[in-house]
Structure formats: C-alpha cells, structure tokens
User: Fold these one by one.
Assistant:
Number 1:
Amino acid sequence: MKILMTGSSGFIGSHLGPLIEQEHEVHHLVSDLTDHKSVTQEVLAFAPDIIVHLAARTEVEKSFYEQLTFSEVNYVGSVNLIETAARIPNFKNFVFASTMEVYGWQPISDEVEQNGIPNEFVAFDENTVPYPNAPYSVAKFGVEKYLEYMHRTCDFPFAAIRQTNSYGRKDNEFFVTEQIIWQMLTNSREIRLGYAEPYRNFIYIDDLLDAWMAVISNPDKVQGKIFTIGPNNPIKIRDYANLIARKLGWDGEIRWDMKPKRQGEIYWLNSNHNLITQTLGWEPKVSLSDGLDRTIEIWKQKLNVQV
C-alpha cells in the first residue's frame, strides 16, 4: 500500500516509519501542518491509500500557555488533512494518534486527589465518557469528533488510538520516565520533580509500535473504531520514581512539587486494551519492570554512566 506519514521525526514516527517501509511505499510529509495549502498539494500528489497521522504538539503542560498554537497544529491542521484525504479515490484508512488525556477529569480523579488511593483501580475504555481538561486534549478530542462526523456523513474510513504514556526514548528527557532517569543519572544527591500523587499507566515503545502496525495492517477490521491500548498497570508517580531509584541504586533526595500546580491537573489516568485485543489479537508484552530496565540501559549508555 501507499502510506503517508505525518510526524515521522517524532518519538513514535522515527521508530514506526522504518517498520512500515519494510512492507509498504511510504511518503513522509514535509509540509508544515499549519501550511494548509502546501499540505493539501503534497497529500494529493502522493494519493496515499492510508494516512498515519502522528504529527502534533504533545507537551501537555505547555498547552496551557500556548493554547492557540496547540489548537492550530493539533486540531485545525488535522481537519485540513482529513478533508484532503476525503478527496482521494479509494482511500482506505486515516489512522489518528489520539491520547488517553481525552478522558481528563473523571469522578475518580477527585477521589484520588482527596483520599490518595481509590477504592477500586478503574481502567478507562472506549465507553468511558471523555472530559478533556487541557488545551492539548481538547484539540485531540475535537479531531476524534471530526473523524466520527466524517465517518457518519461521508463513510470516511478512520481508526484512532488513545495512546497511554509511552517511554523508551533515547534522546528526549522532557517526558516523565526519561526525566526521572536522566536526573538520577546526572545528580547523585538531589532531583527536582513536579507532582507526586497522580496515577498513570505506561507502555513501552516496542508494544506501542506493535499496536500501530496491527491497526495499519488491518484497515477493514478497524473501521470507525477508537482504541484504548492500556496496559492496565496504574502506578503513582511517587512510587514510579522510587521504583526507578531502586533499579539505579540511587539514594538521593527527591524534591517534589517543584513546579507550580497547573490548571486542570488530572490525578487518575489508566486504561485497558480489551477492545483492540478482541479486534486484532494485540496485547502488550513488555512488563513495566523490563521496560524500565531497557530504558535505564539506554540512558546509561547515552550518558556514559556506570552505576
């Protein structure tokens, strides 16, 4: 098949692109997503069978301060791409990188914030009503709704993946897993982090890539579906940092709440993978412990640190 990818240089795209290229003809979008005319011309010239749309601003915290940019890139740019795809004859699928952040505020979020640990570990799924609580997630949810509208009215083919927090990066310490590892490897005495109490679930990059390939390779089975991918392994960020510290043998001090509390902080995000497993047979294989071991080794080698 002919597949057009956006966001090919990002964390997921840089890993996913070479995998797709083993089986398909791939074109990597070079136009800026906000240059709608150029994007349209480039997409129509290639006329792909499938579009894999990964390009986005993904730093949730920054979206509170750069609202217009996030909306322009993540929502308006996506709408232009969708409308362009609808003009392609025999177009097979538009695969969209959504996010578990669309769930946003849920009743359990308040329970976790007030009481620490919920009475029951709840895993969100495709039937959980989203309440996006950040400009980033509002834009992503908006794209989901636009895709559903196009599917209803124009029989437009799409699938979306509500991605969990992914990890296994080799060159970006902004995100929480890599940030904790990087700080501990470069400072033996003290590190500074944000919020200790939220719960999150995490998926290792290899599992995430397998999920993407399963969706891309089965356009007929995934039509009109939005998938959560789990895994159902929620862990409090405080416990997550302590787990990494134990793996590193790091015994310094963690200073929490070193960032201002942001608007709309969410204290519970967790999901399962039941629907995608039932539909495609995919399920995550890498445990959190093994994934962290692999990521730690990546950063030890990158920083040339022996611990």
Number 2:
Amino acid sequence: MNNPTTKGRLGKDLILPILVWVVIIIAFLNVKNIPIDFGEKNHQVVRYAAKFIMTILVPLALIHLLYKDKSDFGIYFPKFLDSFKLSIRGYAIGGPAGGAFLLIGVLGLGFQDWLGSLILSVVYLVVFFFIPKVTKSLPTRTHIVTPNNTILVFCMLSILTVIIAYFTYEYVPVISKILYYIFIVGLGEELLFRGYLQSAFNRYFGKPFRIGNVQFGWGLFLAALLFGFIHALVVAPPTWPWAMFTMVIGLTLGFIREKDCSILAAVLLHALFDMPLVFFTV
C-alpha cells in the first residue's frame, strides 16, 4: 500500500491529484464569470453550491471510482467520541493561537501582508510543534477496516446547508454561515486535502516518518503545501502571503488526520479554527 508497485500508480496517486487541484483552482476563478445574473440575493448560495461540488462531490467521486480499497482515505468515521476529543485537544492549543490575528491587527498588519503572515506562520508552527505532545495520551488509529456510510450523512448536511442558505441568508445569515464553515468549508477542504490528496500521496510516497506512534509521510507536507497555495491562487491577483500561514495550519490538520486515521477530527478542528469568520466576514 505504501509503495508504488503497480503500473499507473504514478499517474493515479501523484499526477492526477495534482491535476485535479489545478482544475479546481481554475474552476473557482471562473465561477464569477458564469454568464448568468444571479443577483445579490443568490450570490452566496451559488458560492456555497460551487464549493460543495468542487471540494466534496469531486474528491468523493474520485475516491469511489478509482480505488477499490478506500479504508486509508479517511472517509470512514468510527468512534465519534475519540475524534471529538482529539479535535478539542488540538483546539486547546490551536484556538488561543488565533489571538495572533488580533496582534497583527493591533500592529496595523493583516494576514495578506508578508509580515503579518510571517507572524501567524511562526505562531502556528509553535502549535504544530506542541500538537503531538498535547494529543499524545489520546488513541492513535492506524487502519480502519470496517466501512460505513457516515460520510454520506455529512454530504447530505452539506446539501442541506445550501438549501438553508437559499431560504434564510437574507434574514438570518449567521445560521447558514455557521453551517457553511462546518459542513462545506471544514468538511470540503478536509475531504479534498487530507482525505483525497494526502491519502493518494501517502500511497505513492509511503509513510516513513513517525512522531510518537503517529506515522506520516511526504503526503502530509505536499497536501499542506497545496492547501496553502490554493488560498493564494483562488483570488486574482494571487495573495501569496496568505499561502504561507495557511500551509502551516495545514501541517497541523494533516497530523490530526493521520492520528485519527479519518478526516473527522480534522474537519471538526478546521471548523473550530474558522468559526470566528462567521462574525467577521460578509
């Protein structure tokens, strides 16, 4: 599983995932160019739906169509309580690190400035350093062999989020925004980057590294790199400083995914990281 021993593995487990990443960036950049006037009312709904298709539907379809054994893609969610504890333990150190955003604001900087992004990157590198220590006492799963369809329930909740946004965004936007950051941003970005990309890269490169009893490989670093770059590239012109600190956050999410052996804890932690955006974005 960890070494490319069959013909075509290079294409399926390395080249194709990167091509999918490129196509998704192009698609995001062109959503605004769809020749339909959606109007201000439906702008957010279209955005939610597009993100659902590109970060949830596409990677899940690729996993199901291309791989017979899906047990190492993190899409099976056993023992919710273990994943929940892991995400909370991660947030215990990662949450306070969010205060760095206030710090750079006081300094007159932003995350799109190089200095602001550098400060955030250093803070979240410290988080990445301590995450293995604060989660050490929690269970580490190495392989999930019993399939379940819980991921489909989460996908249905993502679709429900789009429907709720359509009917309520004008009146109570906070409801759909909370659901959006959990079931579309958290679920979608983790399914794409830590579920599909990181797992496919793991199949190609293997998992030769270890921190404690958590094994990981170059897939963690490559997925984090692509995670950072996509944040810079989906806007025009690209915001390169944004890529730096989001890449570092991707390292933590990647480690949590490997410890949990599913994307669930990473989804929950990602949603917790993003929750302040509910009140500070339009």
Number 3:
Amino acid sequence: MTDQTIRKGILINTLIVLLSFISFQSQAQTQSQAQTQARPHAQGHEEPIRILFFGDSITAGYEIGTDAAFPALIDAKLDSLPGNYTVVNAGLSGETSAGGLRRVDWILRQPVDLFVLELGGNDGLRGIDPEETKRNLQGIIDKVRSTSPGTEILLTGMEAPPNMGQEYTKQFRSLYRELAEKNDLPFMPFILEGVAGDPSLNLPDGIHPTEEGHRIIAKQLWPYISPIIDRMSVR
C-alpha cells in the first residue's frame, strides 16, 4: 500500500468521523432550532409565498451561521421585489437523504409554496448506494406532492467525491437528472458549481463553503428560483 493510498484512507475516515460528529450535534438540538428559521417580508398584505430550503449543512450554513448561508441571501434578494414572502431554512448539518425522508413529514406541517431540495452530499461522502439515495429523494418528492399538491419543487444536484471511483461518481451524478426528468422538476445540476474544490471558497475542512462561497451559490441559484417566483406572483 502506497503512502498516497494511506493518506487518502485517513482523509476519508476523518471526513466520515467529522460528518458523524456534526450529525450528532445537530440531532441534539430541538426541532424548531435545527430545522426552521423563518422571516416574513412585510410588503403588502396578501398571503405570503412560502419558500422552504430543505437540506444538509450546506443549507444550514455550517460554521458561518444561517444569516450568512445562501437561503438568507436569497431572502435578502426577495426584499427588493414587490410582494409578500416567508423564507424558511430547514437545513440540518449531517443530514443524509434517509434522514431527510424521516423528518420531511414534520417539516410539511407548515404550508410551503416552493420546496428547494438540497440533499445527498453526505450520502456521497459516505459511499451510500446511489440507488438508495435516489429512492430516498423520490420518497421526499412523493411526500411533498401528496401532502401539498400545489407545492413546486426545485431539485439541486450534488457530486460525489472523486475518490469514490469513476463508476460511483457517474451513477451518483446521474441520479439527480433522472429524478428531475421523471418528476418534471426544475433542476440545478450542481449546487456547489464554481465553489467546490476552490480552497479560497471553502472552510479548512474542504467541504463547507465560506461566506463568499455562499454568495456564489445564491447568485447561481437565483436564476432557477426567480422564474418560479414570477409564476407564483401572477396566480
């Protein structure tokens, strides 16, 4: 076994331990603290358009706080628009697709007009079978549609780390596009496009974006959200 192989193995094990620790800390929080942070916009008196970001530590703003995470930046963008909006950050650090499937029923107790689905990154880091991830994400989509048929869903994709092997990486990438096509969903192929792999845009762990990284995410996500908001505004 070469020194490079050993170093890769140590890195992977370290990431798994880190993710497990983050998950343990997050689960210790109360549901209201860990899962929802909403701020209504007071423009107008019509019923607000409710936008919910359902994801993992990327959505939750790991280490930088929810106020600097991309959902808050989308929230700020909405301030410049006419209308009434409520934005909810339902990100939970360490969350897997299986964990998201377990907690989505609780999240859907509140009304949601736009459900932004950002999950799967932790599945890829842990080497979970892409077919299992796909089933879990489909389960979340199904629950949203059965609970709230009028809710629109925006799916964001994720990439698996290259150390998982070319075939795994290919299967993992394709599962998101397959879900988008099967369910006729608007789809952002990679939530971390232009951010992943750039040390200047990520924290020292190499996984989680810095504040600047989140600004890039918000900027690139907005063109996917904006048309949906426009359609809702004329209903």
Number 4:
Amino acid sequence: MDLTTLSGDDTDERVRRLCAKGRQPIQHDLVAKLGIGQLEIKVAAVCVYHTFVETALHALEGSGIHVAAVSTGFPAGLSPLAERVAEIRRSVEAGAHEIDVVITRAHVFAGRWQALYDEIAAFKQACGKTHMKVILGAGDLLTLRNVARASVVAMMAGADFIKTSTGKESSNATLPVSLVMVRAIREYAQQTGMAVGFKPAGGIRTAKQSIDWLALMKEELGDSWLCAEMFRFGASGLLGDIERQLEHYATGRYSAEYRHPMA
C-alpha cells in the first residue's frame, strides 16, 4: 500500500504524521492482540508533492519505506513539457525513490501514440534509475481500447509501473479497467520478458474490495506479482478499514461478509 497526501492544504506536520502511520500502520495494542509483533509491518511508500519530499525522507529515514513524488503537473498534466521534465529532475535530485507521472490524455483521444511514447520516454530519461509509475487517468480515457493502448505505449516507453488513476478523476480504479491493464502487462511480459508493476488507485476503500484486486492479480499474473515491488494499492482510506477488520477478528467480532459460508 502507498499512503498519500496530495491536498492543497498539506503541511510538513501532516506529512510527518502520515510517515509515522506508514512506519506503524497497525496500532500497537492490536498487533499485540493478534500476536504478530515479530513481523515488520509497514507500507511500501508515502506519496507527496515535491515540496514535501525532504520532509518525508527525514521522517522515513532508516525505515525502508520509499518516498514517491507526484510530478509532471499532477493531476492534469497540462503544463509545458519542459516544465514537467524539470519537475521530475528536481524531485529526483531531492532524493525521491519513485516518481509518479501523468500522461497528456489528449494524445490518447487523438490517437497520437508516437507523441505519447515520446512524452513518457522523456519522463523516463529524466527519472534515470528512479522508479517511474505512469498514471493513465483511465477514468478520463473514455474506452477500454484506449486504456489498453495507453498501457502498452507506457510500458514500451519505460514505465516501471502503470497506474489507473490520480485519484482526482470522477471514476478511478475499477475492476474492468484493471483487468484490461493487467492483461496488457501479462502480454507485454510474454512478448518481451520484462515485468511491469500495476497500481490501482482511487476508490478502493474496504478490505473486502481489496480482495477482488488481489484475486485479479493472482489469477492473471500469478504469485510473483503479489509483492510491493510489483503491486501497490494507492488507497490511503483502505488502511482504516483493514484496521477495523483486524480489530473485529482479534475480538471475535469479525464481519460476516468476510467469513467462509461454512464457518
């Protein structure tokens, strides 16, 4: 899971609190009740605007949790290309471990696939060895065919991950869109031998919903994709429900909808 704070009223203190939650996502007393104190439980990354990269790096020092910076005129991606590339470089120089970029959706609408490829390739060059997650903004792309084509172009141009949404669109991560993207990843891996990660983001708020995406990944891509290096949830609100379900489990009040029918 990637924890995210991307609001206009973000502050250093809010970012530090989010980083503390990333280090200890489950309350200490609940960890004790569940008897899992021997496990190192933490999130994969904390995602922030460039302004807060340094704050997040200091707060997460030594934790192994990555700092991701949204870039390229997030969330619309409509600033001049040179500015978007410079924004990536600034975040890389600041020490961000991952860069989340957004594409120009108009390239998809107009079928300008070479322009889309060139744009993402320029982003990748600016990222250098820093991990790049390409946000398609799938809710804006109108058709599943557009989602499929944009996914392939992003992977060809060097995406380390493809990501459904910024979380700011009217429609974010859905299972139909995710299935199309995951199958594109599978076909790309079969044809090139290169494995690209997947991140559904936005709209996944419950532990029950998350199981659908875990099943999708297992069925379509297999167990090797079920790790933080290849799969992320971009859903900060999901953590609260996971904690609630674990609390119910620890106290014997586990929700009936999660139980096996024969239980």
